[in-house]
Description:
The protein has strands at about 5, 10, 20-25, 35-40, 45-50, 55-60, 65-70, 75-80, 90-95, 105, 110-115.
Amino acid sequence: QVQLAESGGGLVQPGGSLRLSCVVSGRISFYTMAWYRQAPGKQRDFVASINRDSSTNYGGSVEGRFTISRDNAKNTVYLKMNDLKPEDTAVYYCKRSRFLSSPDYWGQGTQVTVSS
């Protein structure tokens, strides 16, 4: 069983920054890693992903503000969030994406609240 543990969420003012971390109990080097977020009453939306070759993709609302990165030796994925806006408020979830016989694995989420 692969387990993912997100951390780094909290309360921040608009325009501020946070860095989220996701520590994975298994290896991540062969897998696409991703961040999603879910606000109350809304669906879970894609935020960012990073492939095994370190190429990245971002959701349109975070492009230019968020940066996803990975440290395979630490089995850890990061999400650096800059210029945070109230609409970024959500629970942020980390995912190790499916590959071959291994399914998607999700973390429990970490709360990010952007408010003055």
